[in-house]
């Protein structure tokens, strides 16, 4: 009867909101055998409850122990082997034997340090890569829950904006920063003209293993949202979205000319100097060019007026009468 009460009290101490690698791998019966002979030094009485509180302090709430247990998938078995190698020899040694609390604390602290040192050498995982995708390879063992934590990200990634000019090429890569299985299948879908992530608005374009989707020459009808979904077997791993905006060539050309004109003017409406040129030097150069243009225009004007005047004078001095041509043609006409 007393043994049953002791067992229930011990279990109630072990079953608490915060657990650790110790409770994940060490059986309750072994913990009972370990703590059976725990004696408080000052009172010189056996106290099993205080032994479990010591275990809780050394293992359960020890951040170093919890962090050392964050190993990659499949290495939880190795964690149990390491902890058993440290705890079970103490269980066998202390079983049905009285030992002071100071002896317990010294031996358990050493066991915890040895566990941390050995577990920390086990392979670590690369972790989770936000913000999206089912990342099974990123799962780590959690000594608080005694199970592997998956990367709890949504399948849908944020929409990536792509701006292209009409008749130019566009390329979209279905790529993620985490490792993928070998049996990947890729499905590309398209929702014309809209920016969306609603599945019912997409139509399948192609399916296979190609993670690159390219458009050699974009047209206005290519504007819209492209979705890339990757599968492994029947499981969807990730969905990437690309929203393409196509700018017509006429609009693009007008915009570029407007930008060049805007950039060529200073805020006061003055022309922008060449890079590296001093403002005064630029003004002098501008004045010289204007003077040269004006002088050239006046010179051309004077030359044109001179030619007109010379032509008019020549016509007035010309003799009036029959020309040689008239004399030749006259007899023929008779």
Can you offer a commentary on this structure?
The chain is α+β, with helices and mostly antiparallel strands. 44% of the residues lie in helices and 20% in strands. It is built from 10 helices and 12 strands. The strands form 4 sheets. A 5-stranded mixed β-sheet has the order 6-12-11-8-9. Strands 2-1-3 form a 3-stranded mixed β-sheet. A two-stranded antiparallel sheet has the order 4-5. Strand 11 and strand 12 form a beta hairpin. Helix 4 (48-60) packs parallel to helix 7 (101-119). It is elongated and about 145 Å long. It starts with a helix and ends with a helix. Residues 1-18 and 322-334 have low confidence and may be disordered.
Write a brief caption for the model.
This protein has 334 residues and is an alpha+beta fold. 44% of the residues lie in helices and 20% in strands. It is elongated.
Structural descriptors:
disordered N terminus; disordered C terminus; 10 helices; 334 residues; three-stranded mixed beta sheet
Gross geometry? elongated
- Low-pLDDT runs: 1-18, 322-334
Head-to-tail CA distance between termini: 164 Å
Tally of DSSP helical segments: 10
Overall pLDDT level: 82
Oligomer: single chain
For the largest beta-sheet, the strand count, sense and barrel status come to: 5 strands, mixed
Number of strands: 12
Structural class assignment: alpha+beta
In angstroms, what is the radius of gyration?
45 Å
- In what range is the share of β-strand residues? 15-25%
Helix percent reads 40-55%
């Amino acid at each position: 009867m007393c043994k049953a009460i002791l067992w229930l009290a011990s279990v109630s101490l072990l079953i608490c909101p915060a657990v650790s690698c110790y409770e994940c791998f060490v059986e309750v019966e072994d913990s009972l055998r370990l703590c059976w002979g725990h004696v408080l030094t000052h009172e010189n009485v056996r106290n099993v409850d205080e032994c479990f509180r010591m275990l809780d302090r050394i293992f359960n709430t020890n951040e170093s122990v919890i962090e050392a247990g964050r190993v990659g998938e499949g290495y939880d078995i190795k964690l149990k082997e390491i902890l058993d190698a440290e705890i079970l020899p103490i269980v066998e040694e202390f079983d049905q034997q009285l030992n002071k609390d100071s002896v317990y604390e010294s031996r358990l602290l050493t066991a915890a340090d040895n566990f941390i040192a050995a577990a920390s050498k086990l392979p670590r995982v690369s972790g989770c890569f936000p913000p999206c995708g089912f990342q099974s390879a990123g799962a780590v063992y959690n000594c608080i829950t005694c199970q592997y934590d998956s990367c709890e990200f949504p399948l849908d990634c944020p929409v990536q904006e792509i701006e292209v000019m009409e008749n130019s090429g566009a390329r979209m890569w279905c790529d993620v920063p985490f490792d993928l299985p070998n049996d990947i299948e890729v499905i590309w879908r398209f929702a014309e003209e809209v920016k969306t992530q609603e599945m019912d608005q997409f139509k399948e374009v192609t399916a296979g293993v190609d993670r690159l989707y390219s458009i050699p020459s974009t047209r206005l009808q290519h504007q819209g949202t492209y979705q890339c979904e990757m599968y492994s077997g029947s499981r969807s791993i990730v969905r990437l979205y690309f929203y393409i905006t196509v700018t017509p060539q006429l609009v693009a050309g007008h915009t570029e000319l407007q930008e060049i004109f805007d950039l060529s003017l200073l805020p006061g409406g003055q022309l922008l100097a060449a890079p590296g040129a001093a403002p005064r030097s630029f003004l002098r150069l501008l004045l010289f060019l204007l003077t040269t243009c004006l002088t050239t225009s006046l010179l051309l004007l004077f030359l044109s007026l001179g030619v007109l005047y010379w032509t008019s004078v020549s016509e007035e001095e010309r003799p009036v009468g029959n020309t040689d041509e008239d004399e030749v043609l006259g007899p023929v006409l008779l």
